Amino acid sequence: MTASTMTAPRFPRAAGVVVTAWVVLALLGGATGFFVRLPFPGPQLIILVLLAGTLVAASSMPALRAWIDALPLRALVGINAVRFVGITFLVLAARGEIAPVFAARAGWGDIATAVLALVLVAAGEPRTALGRGLTHAWNAFGLLDLVVAVGTATVVTIRGTTPGIAAVLSLPLVVVPTFFVPILLANHVVIFRRLLAAGGTSHDA
Question: Rounded CA gap, 190 and 173, in Å?
Fold first, then answer.
């Protein structure tokens, strides 16, 4: 165990620089109101481009892929605990600062995904067909939740609903759609790949 820990791949320095720049630009965009002023479908296109870039990097950069593949599946699932941010959506909706329909769908969906992620982490690595099946089901639910959240935000924007989703495109929540959503969407894809590989070899990747 000690040897495997010592030889575990390090997070690539180049990827670290890119991620740092990514977060800084997202924060600047939120602080300056860039994302709020960006006309439709600007924010949606940005999310798609960031998702595509993340998937390409995770699959085509050998050092980054090696680091991701070295992560335990529990770590990939556990990162979704960040989705307890859904509580914030519900609070903002109660204050009249965000569209209630968005808060209800994205908020409760995120909370459920986060809670179930912690349950799966506590259960340990899914080494049986049942465990992998439950993780598959959770992963599909978590992915669908993100798709529904982005879709609902899009509908709210198109309809010009008041209040809208400006709070999510401003500080401090701007990192949710511009950083965490693309990362988590890519994370779900990686989890599916790991589960399929584990099912084919009858043991965890």
Answer: 25
Scan for tokens 């599916």, then name that residue.
192
Q: What is the Cα–Cα distance from 92 to 14, expressed in whole angstroms?
A: 37
Instruction: Enter the pTM of the model.
Output: 0.91
- With 0-12 CB in 10 A as exposed, 13-18 as middle and 19+ as buried, what is 115? middle
The backbone torsions φ and ψ at residue 12, rounded to the nearest 5 degrees and listed phi first, read: -55, 135
Q: What angle do CA 195, 197, 201 make, to 5 degrees?
A: 115
Per residue in 97-156, pLDDT (tens digit) is: 999 999 999 999 999 999 999 999 999 989 899 999 999 999 999 999 999 999 999 999
**What is the DSSP code (8-state) at residue 10?**
P
- Say if residue 9 is preceded by a cis peptide, omega within 30 of 0: no
CB 146 within 8 A of CB 153: no
